[in-house]
Every structure is written in C-alpha cells, then in structure tokens.
Design a protein that fits this description.
This protein is α+β, with helices and mostly antiparallel strands. 22% of the residues lie in helices and 20% in strands. The chain contains three helices and ten strands. It has helices at 33-46, 71-78, 129-150, and strands at residues 52-56, 61-65, 90-96, 99-105, 118-119, 122-123, 158-159, 172-174, 180-183, 195-197. The strands form four sheets. It has a four-stranded antiparallel β-sheet with strand order 7-8-9-10. Strand 8 and strand 9 (180-183) form a beta hairpin. The N and C termini lie far apart (74 Å). 13% of the residues are buried.
C-alpha cells in the first residue's frame, strides 16, 4: 500500500513511474523510440479507449495513441495492404464468469493465415488452447450455417478443416456418400458458398 504524502486536486491525481536503465545491468542504456512507439500502439489496440502519450524530449516529438474500436482497428491495421473480402472486421465479445473474450477477424484474398492471440494482453506466440478453441468453435458454426442455408438437403456434409485469421484457405467438404466438394467462395463478402463437385455424383 502506497503511503499518502499529501492532498491534491482530483484532476492531478495518479501514479508516476520513472525508470532509468542501469548501465551495469544492461548492455545499452539508450532507448529506441521506434520500439517504444510500436509497443504503445499495440497496447492501445488491446485496450480500447485507453489514451497513451509518447513524448520524446530529445526532439520534442509527441504522439497520442488512442483506439476507440480496439482490436477491430488492430485487424484493419494488419490488413491495411491486403485485399479484404469485407470492409468491416467480424467482431465478437463475451463474458463467462471472470473470463472476458474479444475476437476480431477479417477474410482476405491471401492464402496464408496470420493469427495474433493474446491472453491478459500478452501475445501468446504458440497459440495454445485459446486458438484451438476458436478454430473449433468457428468450424462448428460454419458447419451449422452451411447445413441450414447452403446445403439443406445434404445433412451429412461437413467442413473438415477451416483456416481463420488474416487469410482464408478453401476447405474441402466431405459427404457421407464419399463425394468430396471444394468451397470456391467461402464468406466472399457475405455471399453464399458456391461448392463444385470433386467426385462422382450419386
């Protein structure tokens, strides 16, 4: 518990942390502005409406980082040079007990995926169960949607694999009769899937 050292106006309250690198511990004590700015931008994406101020007193550079839409803006930033299939990222948020979840993703014409998972605002490079759970859940929802709207007469059809993230790879669909189909336009701008038969018809 920090001790109270005096009174001040409510607008002037807060905590100030000052850090000076120890030259006996660190190989270099010079800060790289670009590294700090990159990290602040990432923090702003992960904490919507959090205002961060970067001020470089060596050259009087000042930058304010504030992202009203959080990870939705993060996805737009990642895909800024890509050809996207829908303008607005798909955004989902929910809470179960003390666990809060936010998901944002967008399909592009790329064939490689990019997934940036975070747990407690920390990038989980290896993915882990949170990525596995998301992919499993999305595949299940896509199967339910496809059976209900795209292939209502093919109850045994199912998506065997689905890739999510920055890119979208076309999955194969297997019927109970052994036919294999390929999705040519999965989620293309919200359009219906257009499968083409890859095997003998029954």
């Amino acid at each position: 518990m920090l001790p109270v050292i005096g009174k001040c106006a409510k607008s002037a309250s807060g905590t100030k942390v000052t850090f000076y690198p120890d030259p006996e511990i660190f190989e270099t004590i010079h800060f790289k502005p670009e590294v700090i700015k990159k990290k602040l931008k990432e923090i702003a994406f992960l904490n919507k409406n959090l205002k961060l101020l970067f001020k470089n007193e060596m050259d009087d550079e000042e930058i304010v980082y504030l992202e009203e839409f959080g990870i939705q803006s993060f996805v737009r930033y990642i895909n800024r040079d890509a050809i996207v299939l829908h303008e607005d990222p798909i955004y989902i948020e929910g809470k179960s007990g003390d666990i809060e979840v936010e998901i944002a993703f967008q399909y592009t014409t790329n064939f490689s995926e990019q997934i940036n998972p975070y747990c407690n605002r920390i990038n989980v490079v290896d993915g882990g169960t949170l990525v596995t759970g998301f992919k499993t859940g999305l595949t299940r929802v896509m199967n339910q949607y496809a059976r209900r709207t795209v292939w209502p007469s093919a109850e045994s059809a199912s998506l065997r694999k689905i890739f999510v993230g920055q890119g979208q790879k076309f999955p194969n669909i297997t019927h109970g009769d052994g036919r294999t189909m390929r999705v040519e336009n999965l989620l293309r701008g919200g359009a219906r899937c257009e499968p083409t038969c890859r095997g003998p018809k029954q």
